[in-house]
Amino acid sequence: MEFWERWRAFQAECKETQIQTAPAAGIASCQCQGLEGATSVPHFYNFCALAVIFAVTPDCLSGRSGER
After folding, report:
1. Are 38 and 4 in contact (CB under 8 A)?
2. Which of 6, 40, 41, 53 could form a disulfide with 34 if both were Cys (CB 3.0 to 4.6 A apart)?
3. What is the pLDDT of residues 13-32, one digit of tens each?
């Protein structure tokens, strides 16, 4: 599973929209569109913030582990 697919799955699981997720992760809404559209990847600190928001480990969010 690609990053953008995990991003969408965790977002749906948490019932959050781009508008809710973006400020919490410290990114702009347009960056969320890039993440969802598989045209960009987050910076390290934003990536870690996303893992916290989705209550998963960075390894799980990156696809390196299925363990949350």
Report:
1. yes
2. 40
3. 989 888 888 888 888 888 88
